Each structure stands twice: as structure tokens, then as C-alpha cells.
Backbone:
């Protein structure tokens, strides 16, 4: 089974944020939550992404993606 890429994890994270929190209004304009968080607080966005990605498991060794050493 192919390894989940960083891009796929980040896309999944953005979809989760948008599904859970919907859209936000800023000065009368509507934005996806993922975009607003990324633009307004990139550190909080990256911390959340890191926490989110730690839940993904490697299909070969059952380690988390962050600690897996069996695939590049």
C-alpha cells in the first residue's frame, strides 16, 4: 500500500477544518476556516496539522507516520 503523502495529509486536514467549522466571516467576506486559520495564524495552523498528522498510521509497521522508518 502506498504511503500517504504530506500533501494528502494536509488536504485531509483542510477538509476536516472546513467540515467541522464551516466558513468564517471577516469584514463581510466569507472564507473557508482552513484558509482563514492559515493566513491569520500560521503557527496555530501548523501545530494543528502536526497533531492531526500524528493520528495517521503506516500500513506496513503500524507506527505513526511521524515515527515510521520502514518507508521513505
Residues:
Amino acid at each position: 500500500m502506498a504511503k500517504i503523502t504530506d500533501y494528502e495529509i494536509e488536504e485531509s486536514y483542510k477538509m476536516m477544518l472546513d467540515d467541522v467549522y464551516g466558513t468564517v466571516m471577516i469584514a463581510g467576506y466569507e472564507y473557508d476556516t482552513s484558509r482563514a486559520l492559515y493566513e491569520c495564524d500560521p503557527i496555530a495552523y501548523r501545530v494543528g496539522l502536526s497533531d492531526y498528522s500524528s493520528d495517521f498510521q503506516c500500513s506496513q509497521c503500524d507506527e505513526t507516520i511521524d515515527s515510521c522508518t520502514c518507508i521513505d
